[in-house]
Inverse folding.
């Protein structure tokens, strides 16, 4: 199917208030962070404190926990060997499968009425299918979504009832990725596998080294970047306070389920208008990529 890409461009100057305009469109959006001197924190990488994103596994060789290390925020909350014996509503499986529009998982809270802010280190997998030893996303919880396969990554964006991921109905949610300020990841020890990326032969579950996601506020988006493409980094996350619509532009509509092939978006934070790249905050540009 041919892909379409429509660029809507509006100058920031046209808006009186940048943040209030965005906030009205997307409940996950809160004002962009003001740059300050970086806080100095201890990070993983010292002896015995592996950096989560550098831990690579075959699906069939996953240890019980990929991050059993009792350092910084560790050890991890759940486990990574997930199978029919671990399937069910109490599963603390932290291996997330991201295969296809009808077979994927999202991170959700391990306890009822949780919030991403409180539970980011210990979120667990909730899946659309009972194949992966996880909790299940209840039928009907997802009310619209767009699955898009591109030459650089697979992205899904959609609408979900917060309670389907055990999130408090009022939780506006947040961002999760395998890095985090201390490089132990959120969730700590969380790993992602897919048989749909270009790194897979189409059947074998293959690790997705770099991914990012937002959940909460009745919305979700998840991007699985191909391991073979590291420059540009389409899963770069530095704008984690500003939600799906900025980080993963799409044409998703509540009530519609679509799947398509699309173009890669501009690197997050860089938007192209009239062939000229502009950095974030100089222009408000939405790159709406439809199916
Ligand atoms: C299934 O998962 C459990 C818990 O993670 C693990 O102890 C067990 O070895 C696994 N079983 C198989 C057959 O892989
Ligand atoms: C979300 O799901 C819960 C539990 O099924 C239900 O009570 C609630 O009405 C749903 N909320 C919306 C906005 O549909
Ligand atoms: C991808 O994995 C899922 C579940 O693990 C399986 O049902 C599906 O058949 C696999 N797809 C292919 C093309 O092998």
């Amino acid at each position: 199917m041919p892909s379409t890409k429509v660029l809507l461009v509006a100058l920031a100057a046209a808006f009186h208030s940048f943040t209030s305009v965005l906030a009205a469109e997307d409940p996950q959006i809160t004002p962009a962070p003001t740059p300050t001197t970086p806080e100095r924190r201890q990070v993983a990488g010292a002896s015995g404190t592996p950096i989560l994103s550098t831990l690579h596994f075959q699906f069939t060789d996953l240890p019980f926990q990929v991050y059993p290390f009792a350092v910084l925020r560790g050890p991890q909350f759940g486990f990574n060997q997930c199978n029919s014996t671990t399937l069910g509503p109490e599963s603390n499986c932290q291996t997330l499968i991201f295969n296809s529009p009808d077979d994927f998982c999202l991170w959700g809270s391990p306890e009822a009425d949780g919030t991403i802010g409180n539970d980011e280190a210990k979120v667990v997998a909730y899946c659309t299918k009972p194949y992966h030893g996880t909790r299940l996303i209840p039928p009907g919880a997802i009310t619209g979504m767009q699955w898009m396969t591109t030459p650089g990554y697979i992205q899904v964006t959609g609408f979900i009832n917060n309670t389907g991921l055990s999130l408090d109905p009022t939780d506006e949610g947040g961002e999760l990725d395998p890095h985090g300020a201390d490089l132990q990841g959120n969730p700590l020890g969380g790993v992602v596998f897919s048989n749909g990326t270009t790194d897979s032969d189409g059947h074998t579950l293959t690790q997705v080294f770099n991914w990012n996601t937002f959940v909460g506020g009745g919305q979700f988006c998840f991007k699985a970047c191909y391991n073979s493409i590291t420059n540009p980094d389409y899963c770069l996350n530095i704008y984690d306070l500003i939600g799906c619509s900025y980080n993963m532009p799409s044409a998703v509509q509540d009530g519609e389920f679509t799947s398509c092939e699309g173009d890669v978006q501009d690197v997050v934070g860089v938007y192209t208008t009239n062939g000229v790249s502009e950095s974030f905050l100089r222009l408000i540009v939405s790159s709406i990529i439809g199916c």
